Sequence to fold (302 residues):
Amino acid sequence: MDSKTYKSGFISIIGRPNVGKSTFLNRVIGQKIAIMSDKPQTTRNKVQGVLTTNDAQMVFIDTPGIHKPKHRLGDFMMKIAMNTLKEVDIILFMINAAEGFGRGDEFIIEKLQGVKTPVFLVINKIDQIGPDELLLLIEEYKEKYPFAEIIPISALEGNNVERLLEQILLQLPEGPQYYPADQITDHPERFIVSELIREKALHLTREEVPHSLAVLIDKMEKKDEREVVHVMATIIVERDSQKGIVIGKQGKMLKEIGQRAREDIEHLLGSKVFLELWVKVQKDWRNKMFHLRDYGFKEDEY
Fold:
């Protein structure tokens, strides 16, 4: 590439819940900035991951999985996902190879009609199907939409991810470097810390619905010369029964959530962390706009 031309742009990752969008983002950026869970609806806000090379800067936006909303929080998440389509240079429509074409994909393809942005079909989890199945899948999707590129990958294994990045680079417009070279996300650290705590809580309390759990960072500060960061956070649930599950017998579950989250937070911040967790019941918070605002879902931004 001519050293004088620098390329940059915004790339939205859309798809049904649980197709591997966050796994892909973390693979590309090389550090954990989006939380991963095998439950749908884990990602709530746009998460921007920034990949900077000598000749380009790619800003990835991981959106909540597109789905038919069931409550106010669902409406809000849907609005975020659809709005990003108007703001970006490339759309990556990611599907789960093992699940094949579903009603959710049909819903997304309907939403993509009339979108002028180039859309790449990214077939993820190809390690879970055979080559013949993959070819049939490609043919099926080709008939549904005029994709600019169709690229099969395994975000978890890293297969073909480099090729996808090369194709993105070809389509990116010339542009400035938006973020400093060492910056990997535009989210404040408090947001990522809250997401890391939420990830552990979701992972360990498997029977609970992800939507009914939010994390609020009450305080985050360095208290002494030893550079220990004190983090105080509250896990918000909707019902007393959920509170009991998150705390666990003799506080064991909460302790385990805290230990696992602390390791990730220390890795993120590069310093020792003292983490204190509380659990609070806020009944039906997902349907109350003032609670949504308190927990970082700001409707007027979108």
The longest helix spans residues 252-269. Residues 5 and 174 are 7 Å apart (CA to CA). The first strand starts at residue 7 and ends at 15.
